[in-house]
Amino acid sequence: MLKRLFEERPGDDGLPGRERRLALLAMITGTQMAVLDNGIVNIALPTLAKELAISGSESIWIANVYQLVTAALLLTFAAVSRRVGRHRLYIGGLIFFTVASLGCALARSFEFLLAMRGLQAIGAAAMLSIGPSLYRIIFPTRLLGSAIGLSALTVAFGIAAGPSLGGLILHVASWPWLFAINVPIGLLALVLGVRALPREKPILGRIDVWGALMSIVMLSGSVFALDQLGHGNGGALALVTLALSVICLVGFIYRQRHAARPLVPLALFAEPRFSFAAIVSMFAFLAQGVAFVGLPFLYQTVMGVSPIMSAVLFTPWPLVIMIIGPLAGRLADKGNPALISSTGLALFLLGMLALTGLDADSSYIDVIWRTALCGVGYGLFQAPNNREMIGSVSVELSANASGVLASVRTFGQSLGTALVGLILGLSFGSLTLSLWVGVGSVLVALALSLYRTPMAAKGLRR
């Protein structure tokens, strides 16, 4: 597959073959660091609490601040990229992330580490907000699905490898190396990015500052409120923050309708294929968020397995995505992406339904084939749906589309996490009920995906 990505044909848009190779390496390296650092710290939180003399609840903010800041800035950075050029924003994000990683490694106080994690998140948001749109201009249109499939593989590997890599580093070294490892990798990605990422002329004009502020409050506030509700903390504060987020959402939509240069051009949503792909993506990520949080609890509290074995039982899901993702992307270059995504969602639905049948007497084989089936379905869904989302809009709007893609992914995962917390914290039911919520979410995604399939077929014939 990789060889095919670098083959050149007459009339190809995008970069020449050799430049694609270097640009792809820069993209994979930067994205991998940003994704890994969202989870690599979680396993080290007890160690960090002890080393920094803080409580366990305080240590959670070392992980939470990264997610909050990243979520808050995705839409804003996607808009900024049009004003400064995507290559400059990506390289700037790499610099921020690498320097902040060094700051995290050198931190000796909780407050300084928290500040550096916030700076890390700024760099991560800059890279993640425009990643898929950069693939749009690096690779020829005929290979866009394959390229986005490779991007899905990169993200899946980051999700799968985060806890394991964090545990391995802590086994052989002290916690600062969780962050110090990013410095040489970041410098390599920086050199490659400066050398190979395609240049763009900035589009002159002001940023929609009010739209940006409302999007920051809307996204970070919703993630914060859902996180607090999910953990059963700060009910009043969470509800007030959630209400403020809703108010900002209404204000943001009004602003985008009337601003001369909106942060998120509403022309994006005038394309039904884009709108449906975004909504389908949110419901699918909600279901994945439910499963990713609920399954470890089910393995350990219902089946009674150890944390290490819980991680092993969870691995087939992201591992299969790594295998299926590139294949699904290649299929999306040749056929109807919406139809392929719908097929994946149908398999994902079967996998989620199978997971609801797990109980205390289930064997490891029972778990593995169910999680693997979910991975097959999700892997078959993700890359074609992302291709449909990015490929259905013009190149000029692809940066904004990329920001929306990253935002719905973050929001869907956060909502799924919060729902599991609510079910557990408020005793609405068992862990199996959490999985049934995921089933319902996949069912909605599948229905919407099937409905939009004829639209995608018409788009391919244009």
How would you state the average pLDDT, rounded? 83
* Major β-sheet annotation: none
Terminal Cα separation, in Å? 27 Å
Tell me the name of the CATH class of the largest domain: Mainly Alpha
Look at the helices and sheets and give the structural class. mainly alpha
Counting structural domains, the number is: 3
Instruction: Classify the oligomer.
Output: single chain
CATH superfamily of the largest domain: MFS general substrate transporter like domains
> Element order, helices and strands?
HHHHHHHHHHHHHHHHHHH
* Fraction of residues in β-strands: under 5%
Query: What is the CATH architecture descriptor of the largest domain?
Result: Up-down Bundle
Number of strands: 0
What is the rounded Rg?
21 Å
Task: Count every helix, treating DSSP H or I runs of 4 or more residues as helices.
Answer: 19
Estimate percent helicity. Answer: over 70%
What is the CATH T-level topology of the largest domain?
Growth Hormone, Chain: A
Poorly predicted runs are none
Question: Key features?
Answer:
462 residues; mainly alpha; Growth Hormone, Chain: A
